[in-house]
Structure formats: C-alpha cells, structure tokens
Design goal:
The protein is α+β, with helices and mostly antiparallel strands. The protein contains 20 helices and nine strands. The radius of gyration is 24 Å and the shape is globular.
C-alpha cells in the first residue's frame, strides 16, 4: 500500500509538471516571443531534445549545419528552457558589450562542482571583487617577469619533443599539456611543480572526463540536478572521482605556496596570482580559503587547457604551411640575431608577423569556441527578432570567425587579415578569441606571450612537417575546441 501511494504521488507530480510545462510553452510571454524566431521544429514538451542527443562529434556537426541553415540566429528549446544561437557580430555586440547581460547561462552551472563560483562563473559584486583583486597579476610589468619561466618551460618542451621525434609523428597534445600546466603553476601560482608526466596526465585525463560529462549532461535535462539523478549514474561517479583529482592537484599547489608565503604587497616582489589572493585574504578582503581555491581551480584550468589547444592548432597550421613557417623563422632570425637565442620580453613584442599568424590561428581554431549568457532584459536582434529576458544567448565564436562577410574565403589561412590596414575597419565583435566586453579574458596578454615563447623555442630547433592535414582533424563539442584524436606533427631537427 505504501509503495502504491508513493507511485501514485510520483505519477501526480509528473503529470502536474507536464501540464505546467505545456502551459508555459503555449501561453507564456517567453515562449510566445521565442516561437517567432527561426529554428528546427520541435516536439511538444521535449522540443529539440532528440535532435541534440548525439555523440560530441555529431553535436559539433549539428551546430555547424543549423547555424548555416538559419543564419544569423536560430532558437532551440526543451521543457521550460529556451535560447538562441548567435553568429552575427551585431547581435553578439548587444550581448557582450552590455553590463546587463554579465551572468553566464545555466550551462556554466555544471562547472560549479569543480570551479565553484570563481572568476569564470561568478556574477555581480563577487565577480567585480575578484576581478579587482586579480587584475594586477596581469600588468605588463608582471608579465615581463614571466618570460624567463616560459622560456625555461619551452626549453624542456623542446627536449621532450627531441626525445619523441625518432622518425614517428608526435601527437603534440601530451607534451604541450605538460608545458602549459607547469608554466601556469610557476607563473600564476608561484611554485615549481615536479616534472612528473604522470601528474600532468592524471590532471588532464580528469579534465577530459569532466568535459565529456558536461557535454553529455547539457542535452539531457534529467541529469541537470547533481544530487537527484546524475550522481547515481556511473558517469556521475567517474565525474566525482575526476573532480577529486582536480581538487587534490590544486590544493597541493595552494599548500606548497602557503608554506613560503610572505605578503606579496611588498615592493620589488614578483606577484604571482596566488600571492595576490593570499595577500588579499591576509589584509581582510572579501575572500576566504574556499574563495582562493575557486580561483586557483579556475586559473589552473583556463591558464593551461586553452593555451594547450591554441599551441596544438598553431603547430598543425604551420606544419601544413611551410612557407609561412619559414617567414616566421626568418623574422625570428632578424629580431633575435639568431633563431636559437632565448627571447626577451622586448624581443617577443617585436615579432609582429608571428603575432599575425597566431591571431589567424586563433581565428580558425579559437580555443573556446562557444560562450553563453543569460539575458537580463529583452534584446532586438539585427534581423528584427525579440529575444526574451532570461533566454540563453549562445555565441558560437567558431562560426563567427568564419563569417565570409568579414573574412573572405574564411577557411583559408591568411595572416595578412591582421595587417593594420586590413583589420582597422573590421567589426569589433567579429573576432573574439578572448571574448569581449566587461567579461573579456583577463589573461589574454599572458597567453600571447606564452604562445610566442613556445613557438620561438620550437621553430628555433625544428622544422615542422605535416603528419595530419587540417581535413583529418575531427573536432568535438566540449569546453574547449578539443580534437577527438589529437594532432600529429613531424619534427625534423634543424641543421
């Protein structure tokens, strides 16, 4: 009798929920406005759900197809959730340039179990406080002091590549991951990790597991709640284990730094990001141990995974464009005197052709291909549609960068797109490798310096030859633009 009563209660709740959702979809202002926007037809109640339940590889292709079909935007919806997908710079500007739409969309809620509400996922006063604390860590006077760290790490990367390039193509993702992870630990966290590849591999594998789980849950609403359903699944258990690995790694970083911490507000001291956080806590700012852990987790992830992806695709493109590769080498020789010289901060700033090449690589392969915001008020798009308040505005940077109106022959690798005379009149919201507006990437200059330092070391020692062609690379829907099967490059030692 008790079991029957429980079952009956469950049925009543389920039916009531379906009726509530049906009413919202048919009579609410939100869905009345959303229905007017073009998009794939959906089914009652579940909307477009079935269309997106696919493998990460298929999901990536589905998004590309729908964005071409419904340009400049299309809607998607399920249950009481709805949003629009944008790739026109005028629409993107409406969202990113306004401080009213600073809250990340519900997709980012899945990150809370790992990153908490750090700089990437926080909103309002908390975000403003954290941004204010962290901004000095990326002042150019601090960045100059990071260049020797980048150079030292890049030299170790070269030695690792020499060890691996015994005639076989090298999947570059592994060694580059180790380089970027050790670099972010020493620069932003102020500690030297040991060079154990196992630590880096375990950390990266945990990120892969978490990223797959995030993508899997994104199109399965019944897994949105951690405590009710997701944690009961086998994927939920693997995800909790991966989060523990990630937290153990970052807590070790914090513990190591705290052992030797002195107030980093003292003059003439290199201020690692972690030092600033510890100092802020010491001086009574609104941040505690949990807040410090949130930011360390955030920067350990964002500071290494996005840079790993960027370097990976840079090597792919240069291996497939030997003429451009030679031009970069020639510029290095002209600026450094010899291409094998260790570059200074000033040297890296002078490598203008290299910088244009890096910008073009980030156009074709933006490390973060997708960002999203929750709209805090209605917006009217360039095509005249009203997107309602509380909708998710999903900005597809990968496709935005391929808009032929702004980038003719968009699949062509052409660094001259970023010559000053070619870029000066370009729409300010059509090229967003580091996002834009108030929530743009705080570490973009840090990233460009690290990319240049790594490339100087690699091209100073190797000629890159293509093992994989661009068309061979299979990409998946994930937190970053991750290649499904890695990227292979042949490294031939320079004479």
């Amino acid at each position: 009798m008790i079991l029957f009563s429980v079952f009956l209660l469950f049925v009543v709740i389920a039916v009531a929920s379906l009726i509530y959702i049906w009413w919202i979809q048919n009579f609410s202002r939100f869905f009345t406005l959303l229905r007017k926007i073009p998009g794939p037809p959906g089914y009652p109640i579940i909307g477009n759900l079935l269309e997106f339940i696919a493998t990460p590889e298929e999901m990536f292709k589905i998004d590309r197809k729908l964005l071409r079909q419904y340009y400049p935007l299309y809607k998607e919806w399920t249950l009481n959730y709805g949003g629009v997908n944008m790739i026109h710079p005028d629409d993107v500007e409406l969202v990113l340039s306004s401080s009213k739409h600073n809250e990340k969309s519900m997709v980012y809620n899945f990150l809370h179990s790992w990153l908490g509400t750090g700089l990437l996922t926080s909103t309002g006063a908390k975000w403003q406080t954290r941004r204010k604390i962290l901004t000095p860590a990326f002042h150019f006077t601090i960045l100059q002091q990071f260049v020797p760290v980048f150079n030292e790490g890049a030299a170790k990367l070269v030695e690792e590549l020499k060890r691996r390039c015994d005639g076989d193509a090298v999947d570059v993702v592994g060694p580059i991951t180790q380089f970027t992870l050790l670099s972010i630990a020493e620069t932003s966290m102020g500690i030297k990790l040991d060079d154990s590849p196992r630590d880096c591999t375990d950390y990266q594998n945990a990120i892969y597991t978490f990223g797959y789980a995030l993508t899997y849950r994104m199109v399965r609403p019944w897994l949105y709640n951690d405590s009710v359903f997701f944690n009961l699944t086998s994927l939920g258990k693997f995800t909790r284990k991966s989060i523990q690995t990630l937290h153990d790694f970052s807590r070790r970083v914090i513990t190591e730094r705290e052992k030797n911490f002195t107030d980093s507000s003292k003059p003439n001291k290199r201020m690692a990001m972690l030092d600033l956080l510890l100092s802020a806590k010491h001086n009574g700012a609104d941040i505690d141990d949990d807040g410090i852990a949130e930011e360390v987790d955030t920067f350990m992830f964002e500071g290494h995974d996005t840079t790993t992806i960027a370097i990976t695709y840079v090597l792919l493109l240069l291996a497939n464009h030997p003429t451009t590769q030679q031009e970069i080498y020639d510029e290095m020789t002209a600026v450094l005197g010899t291409a094998t010289k260790t570059p200074t901060y000033s040297d890296l700033k002078e490598l203008s052709f290299m910088e244009r090449c890096l910008k073009e690589c980030l156009r074709l392969y933006p490390s973060v291909p997708f960002i999203a915001r929750r709209l805090d008020e209605d917006i009217t798009t360039s095509s005249g549609y009203v997107v309602p308040k509380n909708a998710m505005a999903q900005i597809h940077i990968y496709d935005l960068h391929r808009n032929p109106e702004y980038f003719p022959d968009p699949e062509k690798f052409d660094p001259d797109r970023f010559l000053p005379e070619n870029a000066k009149n370009r729409h300010p919201f059509v090229y967003l490798p580091f996002s834009a507006g108030p929530r743009n990437c705080i570490g973009q200059r840090f990233a460009m310096l690290e990319l240049k330092a790594a490339l100087c070391a690699i091209l100073g020692n190797f000629v890159l030859e293509a093992a994989d062609k661009r068309e061979d690379i299979v990409m998946i829907t994930e937190m970053v633009l991750r290649p499904k099967n890695g990227v292979r490059v042949n490294f031939r030692l320079r004479k």
